[in-house]
Specification:
Strand order of the largest sheet: 2-4-3-6-7
CATH topology of the largest domain: Glutaredoxin
Shape: elongated
CATH superfamily of the largest domain: Glutaredoxin
Helix content: 55-70%
Distance between the termini: 57 Å
CATH class of the largest domain: Alpha Beta
Length: 350
C-alpha cells in the first residue's frame, strides 16, 4: 500500500512541481525520476507481481531516517503507522474517484450531481429538489451511497428514450379546457410553493407556451422520504386544486395564476405569504375566498370541502408521486415534458 499511496501523493504533487519547475528545471527532473519509480512499483502491484524496485523501502527509509538515529525503538511502530496511513490514503483516493464518477453520471442521467439533495448541486439546473431524508447513522449513510448508484443506473435509459406526454397517467389540471384539441400535449409538473416553478410559470405565459401546447398541469407537493413537505402549505393547495378540477375543469388554474402572479394588500407575492405566514387554516380560508370569487356558491363550497378531505384526493397525490419519482425519475421541479423530451428547471425566456 505504501507504493500506491506514494504514487497518489506524487500524482497530486505533480501540479505544484510543474509550476515550480518553470523557475527551477532541476526540480522537475528529480520529480520525474521518483515518479517513474513509483509508477513502476504500482504497475507491478496491479499485475500482482512483487515490487522489485525497493521503492517501498526507499519511502520508509526516507521518512524514518532521522528517527533511526535518535530513537531506534520508534522505528517499528512508526513503520506500522506508515502502512496504516498508506491504507487510509488509498481508501480515501479510491472513494474520491468513485464519488467523482458517481457525481458526473448523476449529472448526466438525473440532471444533478447530488442525488440526495439535488438543489445543492450548483452544476445542475435551478430547481426545487426532491430531497431524501437525512440518513440515521453511518450504516444508513453507507446504504444510501449504494442506493444512489442504483438510482443513477436506473435513470440512464431515460437519456435514450423519447417521451410522449400522453403515455403518463397523471392526475392533472387542464390549462385551457376549451382549447388545444389540435395542439401537441405537454405535461408541466410544479410545486405551488416552489419559487423556481413560479418563475417558470411566468416565463411560460410570456413566451406563449400555454398557447402553443395543450398543457396538463400536475400539482405536486414535494416531500422527503419521511413525508415532510418542503413548503409549508403546498399539500393543502394541491388538495384544493385537484378537488376543484374534479368539480369544474380548468378552474383550478385561477388559483395557480393568483398564487404565482398576484400580491396581497401589503405588496407581498401570495406564494411567499402561503409559504411563510399562513397557517393551514388560513391558507384554506384564502383559497376558498378565491374560489367563491370565481363563482362557487355555498353549496358548491360545501361539496368542495368534502372532496378535499376524501381519501380519493390522497390516492391521486400518491399516484402522481409514484409516477413522478419512480417512472419519470424526477429529482427536481419544475419538470416539463414536451416535444418528446423531459426538461428540468426553469422554462427559458425567448
Amino acid at each position: 500500500m505504501v507504493c500506491i499511496a506514494a504514487f497518489i501523493i506524487l500524482a497530486v504533487m505533480g501540479v505544484f512541481v510543474g509550476v515550480v519547475s518553470i523557475f527551477k528545471p532541476k526540480v522537475w527532473k528529480a520529480y520525474t525520476k521518483i515518479f517513474k519509480k513509483a509508477w513502476g512499483c504500482l504497475w507491478k502491484k496491479v499485475r500482482l507481481q512483487k515490487c522489485e524496485t525497493g521503492f517501498k523501502e526507499d519511502v520508509k527509509n526516507t521518512l524514518l531516517s532521522r528517527v533511526i538515529i535518535k530513537h531506534p525503538k520508534w522505528v517499528k511502530p512508526l513503520s506500522v503507522m506508515v502502512e496504516i496511513i498508506s491504507v487510509v490514503i488509498v481508501i480515501v483516493a479510491v472513494w474520491a474517484i468513485l464519488t467523482s464518477i458517481k457525481s458526473l453520471l448523476a449529472l448526466w442521467a438525473l440532471g444533478t450531481c447530488n442525488v440526495t439533495k439535488p438543489e445543492a448541486c450548483t452544476l445542475g439546473a435551478e430547481v426545487c429538489s426532491i430531497d431524501e431524508s437525512a440518513p440515521k447513522g453511518p450504516l444508513e449513510a453507507t446504504g444510501r451511497w449504494f442506493t444512489e448508484w442504483g438510482e443513477i443506473f436506473e435513470a440512464i435509459p431515460d437519456k435514450f428514450r423519447s417521451y410522449k406526454a400522453e403515455d403518463f397517467d397523471l392526475n392533472y389540471i387542464v390549462m385551457n379546457p376549451n382549447e388545444g384539441a389540435d395542439k401537441p400535449v405537454a405535461i408541466d409538473i410544479f410545486d405551488p410553493g416552489c419559487f423556481v416553478c413560479m418563475s417558470s410559470y411566468q416565463n411560460q405565459k410570456e413566451t406563449g407556451f400555454f398557447d402553443n401546447y395543450e398543457v396538463r398541469l400536475v400539482p405536486f407537493a414535494i416531500a422527503d422520504s419521511s413525508g415532510n413537505y418542503k413548503f409549508k402549505n403546498s399539500e393543502i393547495i394541491v388538495r384544493y386544486m385537484l378537488a376543484i378540477e374534479q368539480l369544474r375543469s380548468g378552474m383550478a388554474v385561477n388559483i395557480l395564476d393568483r398564487l404565482f402572479t398576484e400580491k396581497n394588500e401589503d405588496g407581498v407575492l401570495y406564494q411567499n405569504v402561503f409559504n411563510e405566514d399562513y397557517s393551514r387554516e388560513e391558507a384554506s380560508e384564502k383559497l376558498e375566498e378565491w374560489i367563491v370569487a370565481d363563482g362557487f356558491d355555498k353549496d358548491g363550497l360545501a361539496e368542495l370541502r368534502k372532496i378535499v378531505d376524501y381519501p380519493e384526493i390522497t390516492d391521486k397525490m400518491n399516484e402522481n408521486r409514484e409516477i413522478i419519482e419512480k417512472e419519470l425519475h424526477v429529482k427536481g421541479i419544475p419538470t416539463t415534458i414536451y416535444d418528446g423530451k423531459k426538461h428540468t428547471g426553469r422554462h427559458p425566456t425567448m
